[in-house]
Amino acid sequence: MIGYVTLGTNDLARAAVFYDAITTELGVPRMMEYEGFIAWGQEGGGAGIGLTKPWDGNAASVGNGVMVALEAKDEAQVQRLYDIALAHGGTDEGAPGPRGEGFYAGYFRDPDGNKLNAFVMG
Fold this sequence. Notes:
This protein is of the alpha/beta class. It contains 2 helices and 8 strands. It is globular and about 45 Å long.
């Protein structure tokens, strides 16, 4: 249902380092890049993620209640994604662990404060 998600950034170069590390672990390359915008994804693949400086010229801000969930292949990858996020300027929002029956996730924010998680079901 979702084609892609775009998040705002105030420092595209800094944020690109964070997302390059996360998407490398997920095996997803950059697929599009313009001045002020980068997108990661695969044609014919699942939903991708874009990063942009806001087009209206105002500062990017975090959406309260907004979170992007990244599907991992297993619990070990959840841990790796969480560790990669923190090593590349992200901040902790909840260490990896079980969150109810059949759901395992770790929560973090990117350098601009956008909330993400890495999760696996089952």
